[in-house]
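S1.2 Input.
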Amino acid sequence: MASRLLTIGVDIGGTKVAGGVVDADGQVLARERRDTPGRNPHDTEDTIADVVTALSAEYDAVAVGIGAAGFVDASRSSVLFAPHLAWRHEPLRAGVERRLSMPVVVENDANAAAWAEWRFGAAVGETHLLCVNLGTGIGGALVIDGVVERGKFGVAGEFGHMTMVPGGHRCECGNRGCWEQYASGNALVREARELAASGSPVAQALLERTDGDVQAITGPVVTEAAKDGDPTAIELFEEVGRWLGLGLANLAAACDPSCFVIGGGVSEAGDLLLGPARDAFRRSLTGRGFRPEPRIVRAELGNEAGLIGAADLAREARSIIRRARRRIATKRLAARPAPNR
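S1.3 Output.
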């Protein structure tokens, strides 16, 4: 099973640490999963190391890529801030490398997922990709001409924290009215639970699916209800879709992408979400009718996009470093004086 082309990707979320061995074609050869251990960063680093060690027992990987939900600095070594995890200027790369015997690259999880979709998924061949991941919150990323656009300080693409409703719902980031409070899994569940808790008869079908337990209404419950034709669940997705489309129109005005890829757990609803999003996008797009429109498509790689992208970016970084060292060695060799004969 040994191969110099194998790398390990690790995707860290608020509830799970998922890892996988990934080959150069983006295929996941083995998987490991652990629960995210509370809010202690060092415990999380131990869990990452445990996942990598388990995967390394059978496969000879050359590097590790970590997709972290948060602001990752430009050196791809530290998590500056994570709205949903207790990371504040956390030197994640150094902490994990101390526990392992291979190089580590830290990447924003949305950047990793976007890279995976550009390399192996729904956006192969696109020149200007903008990826939006709808999960607990909203993650975002840009891949332009085959390069992840990270910004000057490494934190580009945090679209979920654009203010959409001044003074609106409080967000975990500390602000109010962020886009992710209206077009994410949390927003979908919040609206469904509020409707059920109010005693509205239109939420009765949702409550029947959870034996009357309001707190048991989750994103997958609403998704299945919508797929089964429940009108209230469909209406909830339409509302989230409208907010999604409005935000995409704003991003199109700023970034002019050729393609939007929509991923994350909420995208499992497919056209129940993307249909209303496309309609709202077309109604809100600046210069509509007089400009080319980007495609809006669903991601293809599912929940494994983050770990696939993180693994591939680790492979890419290792290759870049190796090529740079070769160039330096070649220049030094060329600069040596010729031996006297």
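S1.4 Remarks. The chain has a mean pLDDT of 92.
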